[in-house]
Amino acid sequence: MSSDSYAYINLEAINDIADGDSEFIREIITNYGETVSNSLEGLSEAISGADAERIVFFAHKLKGSYAFVGADQLHGLVQEIESNPTGGPALQTNFSELLRLSQSVDGELEAVLRNLDLA
User: Fold this and answer.
1) How confident is the model at residue 4 (pLDDT cuts 50, 70, 90)?
2) pTM to 2 decimals?
3) Assigned fold of 11-118
4) CB 18 within 8 A of CB 4
């Protein structure tokens, strides 16, 4: 798989994990999508309920998912959320930015899947 340049993910990180196996890359991306979707929903509910323990739980879970696909910006944001789960307005700002960037990451991962289909 070509190592095209992406702004929000590190394709080399995914390729390293999958050892270049296209089917495994597809599986990584599919699992990522399911895990992140559920975790973002849980994090949103935890933030709305000001539940610091659940905020830390979901932020930690997301941190691993973002590292897996080399989404360093998201990894950094979610690490800030995990480190300061009672962060008031900063917490909501970080979460809003997390949602915005997540859409960009999702778009890039969809492009990777499309490229796999063309290969």
Assistant:
1) low
2) 0.88
3) Four Helix Bundle (Hemerythrin (Met), subunit A) (1.20.120)
4) no
